[in-house]
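Why ECF transporter S component? Reviewers of the renewal asked for a concrete example.
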Amino acid sequence: MNAKKINVLAIFIAISVIGAFIKIPSFIGSVALDSFPSLITGALLGGLAGGIVAALGHLVSAYLGGLPLGMLHLFIAVEMFLLVFTFSKIYQTGNSIISILFFVLGNGVILPLPFLYLMGKGFYISMVPVLLIGAVLNGIIAQLLMPRLTAFLKEWRVVKQ
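Here is what the prediction returned.
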């Protein structure tokens, strides 16, 4: 990774931290607009960069929310890394809509499945709607910003022409 890409990665991590302050109201304080920068980063710079932004964004969001799930947030950060990494691979095949749908379903329904067994059915059922709303909002914001940022980053020669 060259210096320009590292700078852009740092900027998207900072945007993810800002998004972590914008919470979706729920009894768990870690649902926020911290994922859309990772989706954009993953689409433009690759899965590794996007996954890093996703994991760090979740950890900051969880910290700001008081770490309601304790050390389980490390597990969630790994889940977010893998989700955005996979999203990036799907996006780079040219399937932008399918990749956003994958992210929404993955973030809202699949990633919380371990908590069905760890914390019970009530926790899972109460979290899925909030996570789906957060994932849809993050996906829409990313989908709206990606074309504009792609053109900007191509002009600055950060992504390939």
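Residues 30 and 62 are 4 Å apart (CA to CA). This is the kind of structural detail the renewal will allow us to pursue systematically.
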